[in-house]
Amino acid sequence: MTTQTSQKNELFEARLLVHLLKTEVVKNDYDVLAAILSQKTGKNVTARNIFYMVKGESYAKKWLILALLELSLKSSWMPSSIADWENLIWTITGKKQPVQGGDNSGIFEKLAEMADKNCQYFEQNFELVVYGR
Fold it and tell me: Is residue 88 within 8 Å of residue 111, measured between CB atoms?
């Protein structure tokens, strides 16, 4: 997942990490976030790994970006740009594809499942961000 978003040219994983670092549980503590991610994934994630990803000097593997996405969605992160939606679709499907057009209901269902929220929550955000409605 090396796609950069349009917001400050940050990598998608960096955007998710920055969001998680600002949450009440993590409180900008890289060690706490590393422990949470290690527990969630069952793999060794270090504060150093996180530091370099936030700086955009390292990339997340798919297993890590899925964990970041799930934790971010559960902590109220929502896509705020078309680039975010492109990265979400790429992360979930494994395919780079345009955001507009096509049936995204499967994406909304997967996001709802990951976030423990209703599909309509994501459909409405998609319509607002992509089409401005």
Answer: yes
Q: What is the mean pLDDT of each run of 10 residues along the chain (133 residues)?
A: 51 96 96 98 97 95 96 96 94 87 89 95 95 87
DSSP class per residue in 104-132: -HHHHHHHHHHHTS-HHHHHHHHIIIII-
**Residues 15, 5 contacting (CB under 8 angstroms):** yes
Q: d(Cα 109, Cα 120) in Å, to the nearest integer? A: 9
**Cα separation of 88 and 106, whole Å?**
12
Can you say how many angstroms the Cα of residue 128 is from the centroid of all Cα atoms in its chain? Answer: 18
φ and ψ of 4, to 5 deg:
-95, 145
Residue with tokens 């790994």: 49
Query: Where does residue 127 fall: left (phi above 0), alpha (psi -120 to 50 degrees), or beta otherwise?
Result: alpha
- Please state the length of the chain: 133
